[in-house]
Design brief:
The chain has 338 residues and is α+β, with helices and mostly antiparallel strands. It contains ten helices and eleven strands. Helix 1 packs antiparallel against helix 10, helix 2 crosses helix 5 and helix 4 packs across helix 5. Its EC number is 3.-.-.-.
């Protein structure tokens, strides 16, 4: 049984200061940190900055919706894959063509495990725009493309694998991915989470302006490949709030068996870090995932603590360094008592 270790006021203050530094010195418009634990001893919310200049002077809060980017992978695709495996609709270690014989090689020979662990060998560049003028189903096109490395041999972050998983989930259930996800989120209690597009409002954080003079990306996915798929994809497209990510984290840390299975290291990334099933897992037992737009979710199963971070750090263009100090501090604090 997990012995819950609540967040200390010192740790919470350090994280809030790091968020403030990101806002005032690193070009992040604003953001929300939510710290909590599975015992429900209280959620600590720290907000800094504004949602965006065009949204007025008010700070964001735990109900402000942000583009999750790759946190879509865990809040939607990973979670739904666990359900599909339990229900026997997918097999973790069988070739996906065993359930979907229309899928060609080489991709049809991949397994769900390889897709979840980013070890499939699929092309790392997503570029779904290549297929705009073709009539063949996207899953077949993805599977027909040559692999860039032998499956299962090396870790390489690949959005295409999660695009494919989203298509497989819809096909296996014979229901659209967004419908499956809506049902899951309703069951968990994530009532502020949905695939876009969303109506523009001060409670929805805008992201990047792609072209000078053009409308800012706002309420539609920042990820261009998700946008090409109408905003619904297995790798990106979900909008959510810090409050809902906290609900999700508490649900998982309460004893979710799929989480426990997924946090076993599968393939090395670098010293001290491995890929589990979707999640990055550290040697100290902390699991986390980031989103390109400036989002993160961390879980520490041994202590029952979690941390959700939502920002629109790409507002002024992408810079990997904007959130690095804050993200490094979050991981270090969670690992301390791991």
């Amino acid at each position: 049984m997990t012995t819950t270790t609540p967040w200390t006021s010192t740790a919470a203050a350090a994280l809030a200061d790091a968020l403030e530094t990101a806002v005032h010195h690193r070009g992040v418009p604003g953001g929300v940190l939510l710290l909590g634990d599975c015992a429900g001893t209280g959620r600590l919310v720290h907000a800094r900055g504004t949602v965006a200049p065009e949204c007025g002077p008010a700070a964001p809060d735990e109900h402000t919706r942000y583009d999750l980017a790759s946190l879509t992978k865990i809040t939607s695709t990973w979670a739904l894959t666990g359900r599909a495996l339990t229900d026997g609709l997918l097999g973790l270690d069988e070739p996906i063509a065993a359930r979907f014989p229309e899928l060609p090689l080489p991709g049809g020979g991949l397994t769900v495990r390889q897709l979840l662990t980013h070890s499939s060998g699929l092309e790392p560049v997503t570029r779904l725009d290549r297929y705009l003028l073709t009539d063949r189903p996207l899953a077949e096109l993805l599977c027909a493309a040559p692999l860039v490395s032998p499956p299962g041999r090396e870790h390489r972050y690949i959005d295409r694998g999660f695009v494919l998983l989203g298509l497989l989930l819809a096909a296996a259930h014979r229901r659209r991915l967004e419908v499956l996800a809506d049902d899951y989120w309703a069951e968990v209690g994530m009532n502020e989470t949905e695939f876009g597009p969303l109506r523009r409002s001060p409670q929805v954080a805008p992201t990047e302006q792609r072209l000078r003079g053009a409308p800012r990306t706002w309420g539609v996915p920042h990820d261009p490949n998700a946008a090409l798929l109408g905003g619904v994809a297995g790798h990106a497209g979900v909008f959510s709030t810090a409050a809902d990510l906290a609900t999700f984290a508490e649900h998982l840390l309460a004893g979710d068996r799929w989480l426990a299975e997924s946090l076993r290291p599968q393939i090395a990334i670098e010293a001290g870090r491995s890929r589990g099933l979707c999640w990055i897992v550290t040697d100290a037992g902390v699991a986390y995932h980031h989103g390109y737009t400036g989002t993160s979710l961390y879980l520490a199963p041994a202590t029952g603590r979690y941390l959700a971070l939502l920002t629109n750090a790409v507002y002024h263009g992408f810079s990997a360094s904007r959130l690095t100090p804050l993200r490094d501090l979050a991981l270090a604090l969670l690992e301390q008592d791991g």
